[in-house]
TrEMBL record:
The keyword Transmembrane applies. InterPro entries: DUF420. It holds the Pfam family DUF420. The chain crosses the membrane at residues 50-68, 80-98, 118-143, 164-183. Keywords: Membrane, Transmembrane, Transmembrane helix. This is Putative membrane protein.
Length: 187
């Protein structure tokens, strides 16, 4: 049974993407005042980057498992892994945005200026760009999967969009771990 009308996949993808990106840009741009989120002890705010790197690693694992499962024809395992990946992504983003709003902005880079300009910023820029591009791709692939019975999915663009989404997602999560390492391990 379809949960999403087939005719509504594209418009719903657009609406969800715009709303999601508006929330992200509002939080990242300082448009959401810290008073709008509940306060947390400092240790909770300090723990969020460490929890998020674990979530990122788990998401890399679930995306990889989902990819392998579908290549082996195991649709049930693929679906479970990809829905799990989306849940991990949503958890990551919720925690990241909460910390961003609660602390009043992004964490400054503690390392040398040369590393900041020539290593950190380019990696961060690609990570953010891929995360933004992934949002509509992931929504579209998930909504297509929920709008069609399994036997019809090969006749849709689900696999093509799913491959793009998964590839970019893997790179984005991997670069996010590099950003974490630069912020919290190297410096």
């Amino acid at each position: 049974m379809a949960y999403v009308s087939r005719e509504r996949v594209a418009p719903l993808t657009a609406i969800l993407s715009v709303v999601s990106l508006a929330i992200v840009f509002a939080a990242a741009g300082g448009r959401v005042p810290p008073s709008t989120v509940p306060t947390a002890p400092e240790w909770v705010l300090d723990a969020i980057p460490h929890v998020n790197v674990a979530i990122s690693a788990a998401a890399i694992g679930t995306i990889t498992l989902g990819w392998r499962a579908i290549r082996r024809g195991n649709v049930a395992r693929h679906r479970l892994a990809m829905v799990g990946s989306f849940g991990l992504f949503a958890s990551f983003l919720t925690l990241y945005l909460y910390r961003l709003v609660a602390t009043g902005g992004a964490q400054p880079f503690p390392g040398p200026d040369a590393v900041y300009q020539f290593v950190y910023l380019p990696i961060l820029a690609v990570h953010i760009l891929l995360a933004i591009v992934c949002i509509p791709l992931v929504y579209y692939a998930l909504l297509l999967a929920s709008a069609h019975p399994i036997e019809e999915l090969p006749r849709t663009s689900h696999a093509r969009f799913g491959r793009y989404a998964a590839s970019l997602w893997l790179v984005s999560f991997s670069l996010g771990i590099v950003v974490y390492a630069l912020l919290h391990v190297a410096y």
